[in-house]
Amino acid sequence: MPIMIKTPQEIEKMRRSGQVVREVLEHVRQFVKPGASTQDLENAAVGKIKELGAKAAFKGYRGYPCVLCTSVNEEVVHGIPSAERVLRDGDIVSIDTGVILDGYYGDSAITVAVGQKVSPRTQRLLAVTKASLERGIEAIKPGATLGDVGAAVQEVVEAEGFSVVREFVGHGIGTRLHEDPQVPNYGRRGQGQKLREGMVIAIEPMVNAGKPDVQVLSDGWTAVTQDGSLSAHFEHTVAVTAEGATILTQ
Ligand code: MF3
Ligand code: CO
């Protein structure tokens, strides 16, 4: 499929779906505490999405069963909420959600520390992953390439001795959750697809404290680090503007 260029009117619609995603994540964040289950987070999200008049984007996508992905500790992405998965003090949990509003998708993720016992090194993993996303977004402007964006993300991560996951990438987004192009979190400056005003992409670095390798568990969804190291994930939906980029899930 060609890369879809969005009109300013379409980007405004995507900003509205992005706002809903943001509100859902900020709502769910308040439920993250020791003793809460990832199903509790799912339930909070279901209620909020309904209240805001949107439709969940993930539920039913390729058979995925929930509105959130909740990925705890060594889980990288696509963890499935469950009443049995109870968060403990010192855990980290990635919360990823998407919605459809007026035909347009928004997609964003955050990783949150549970309680007070998260180690300084783990807090660093969260901060560096978030910073890598921000640095990637700063690299966006018309004429820049996806290699520029990936290289910016990768540099921030590897400077800390962390590693970037290769098996999963970001994506174009619009009237479908996943559109072209793929948006890797690694790359070489000057290489890859050139960005143009009106493109909208979801950038979502997945960063492991240890080695980059991941594997998918027998549930067919949950991706974990092969070495059991912790993993963090942040994501924004971003539009390319004449000046640079605007974050639609801000
Ligand atoms: N943010 C992820 C992505 O864009 C989440 C997708 S989960 C799925 O790929 F269930 F929808 F597949
Ligand atoms: Co995404």
Task: Describe this protein with a few key phrases.
250 residues; alpha+beta; Creatine Amidinohydrolase; five-stranded antiparallel beta sheet; four-stranded antiparallel beta sheet; 15 strands; 27% helix; binds 2-amino-4-trifluoromethylsulfanyl-butyric acid; binds cobalt (II) ion
Structure description:
- The protein has helices at 8-29, 38-51, 120-138, 146-158, and strands spanning 55-56, 68-72, 75-77, 92-101, 104-113, 163-164, 170-172, 179-183, 200-203, 206-208, 214-216, 223-225, 231-233, 236-240, 245-247.
- With 250 residues, it is of the alpha+beta class.
- It has a single domain (8-247), classed as Creatinase/methionine aminopeptidase superfamily (Creatine Amidinohydrolase), CATH 3.90.230.
- A five-stranded antiparallel sheet has the order 8-7-9-14-15, sandwiched between helices. Strands 1, 2, 4 and 5 form a four-stranded antiparallel sheet that branches. It has a three-stranded antiparallel sheet with strand order 3-12-11, with no helix packed on it.
- Strand 14 and strand 15 (245-247) form a beta hairpin.
- Helix 1 crosses helix 2.
- The model has no long low-confidence stretch (mean pLDDT 98).
- The structure holds 2-amino-4-trifluoromethylsulfanyl-butyric acid (MF3) and cobalt (II) ion (CO).
- Cobalt (II) ion (CO) is lined by residues 107, 171, 202, 204, 235.
